[in-house]
């Protein structure tokens, strides 16, 4: 499947049977393309790279080398889930790279959003390249490119590709889901046996929590983002909002406000809650989250998350706000 154009005759994959047919066909094609060579994949744990990994594990097993880079900007539990699903359950050849200190050291003191993005992107390529050089006999690079990446490159800012590798590492590409739409990728992921939490997850930006820890990232505020995000996700799941709301998350700004706890004055960070719905991420409306639920989440965040004394809800649609805060 080398063409980048989806044939008009290609049926939309909406059922498990259609997904299984797609999987069988891909396994045949991947085996024919890859033969006895080795394939490298940057596995983030997002739905696209996870589906590509699961397909390749079925097709070529141990010839696939998955590299999971933990840059310290992932959501709570994500790196653990990648290791559990792919290494423990699917027995994949998985290299887990703990690059947390490396990323956070590079990002220290950098407040400008686009600079932060550039550092995260460039460092990711560097770490991936180093791991790739340690592997022998890699001939192919697998990528979770999907059809919207090809047809609307200025749509959702997805980072599926490890572009920017040096000249001597220009491997032949393997892109088994490049003609699929997101909903089809999810149906295929489900048929491949991936957990629901992985298949139906909300969009998550490539630079991760890095763009939600506003301004210059500190470990203290990054933990506040990660812990408050985990509480928000848990409460949305418990209250039937998971899968209904398109994207929801917390952000922590780089200023403190005065509060009070146990009769004592506090000086701590606020947490911003954002919950939006959209079709294409170009415009967005704010989800009407029940007030009682917001109060409950506020109570949990202010009592369970360290260095936080206040919670605010972002009422701004896009435009005038963007979905992310930076
Ligand atoms: P904005 O904030 O521009 O976001 O309204 C629209 C969608 O894009 C995601 N987003 C990113 N995704 N790298 C990504 O992979 C990025 O740098 C990035 N910035 C924003 C955002 O989460 C939303 O879904």
Description:
37% of the residues are buried. Helix content is 39%, strand content 18%. Helix 2 crosses helix 7 (182-191) and helix 9 (219-238) runs antiparallel to helix 10. The chain is of the alpha/beta class. The protein folds into 2 domains: 16-199, 3-Layer(aba) Sandwich (Rossmann fold); 212-313, GMP Synthetase, Chain A, domain 3 (2-Layer Sandwich). Strands 3-2-1-4-5 form a 5-stranded parallel sheet, with helices on both faces. Strands 6, 7, 8, 9 and 10 form a 5-stranded mixed sheet that branches. The chain has 10 helices and 10 strands. Strand 8 and strand 9 (285-286) form a beta hairpin. It is globular and about 70 Å long. Xanthosine-5'-monophosphate binds at residues 117, 156-159, 203, 205-207, 247, 281, 318, 322-324.
Mean pLDDT: 95
Q: Give the strand order of the largest sheet, numbering strands 1, 2, ... along the chain.
A: 3-2-1-4-5
Range of helix content: 25-40%
| Number of spatially distinct domains | 2
- CATH class division of the largest domain: Alpha Beta
Oligomer: single chain
Main β sheet profile: 5 strands, parallel
State the CATH superfamily name of the largest domain.
HUPs
Contiguous low-pLDDT stretches (5 residues minimum) are none
Q: How many E strands?
A: 10
Q: Choose one word for the global shape.
A: globular
